[in-house]
Amino acid sequence: MERNTLYLDTSVLNFFFEDKDLEKANSTRELFREIRNGKFNAYISELVLREIGKTRGLKRERLLSLINTYKIPWLEVTPECMELTEKYMGREIFPSKYRDDGLHIAIATVHQIDVVVSWNLRHMVKLRTRREVKAINIVEGYKEIEICTPMEVIESD
Question: How many domains does the chain have?
């Protein structure tokens, strides 16, 4: 059986260390267990690394350590990713100040990832975004991509 590929946005990495919302934290940690156990192939991007680069101190160290511990490779932001992001922005899927949310999805789409995993319920993991991204990706010749929370992806009960 072929493993699904996952694109983890920065919110997923952050929730690994969450100590207030335990339901999200536990779902995130379970997702990482499943990644470690080989159920999924996980990726991040150079955009995620840039976002981590804006953090400081212990938080940055923890996030980078998490990536290294789970040996999560990163995907490049290509001109094709930028072009697809502009298609999303042209449909006003994302507010202009949240262009990077569209870029996360475009990176995953261009690199033929199966699922974008995020805790960003405001702009990414919502019905309108799923529908609009699907429509644009079909028109542009890309395969369909799922956009889910870790809770929707984990397979363990």
Answer: 1
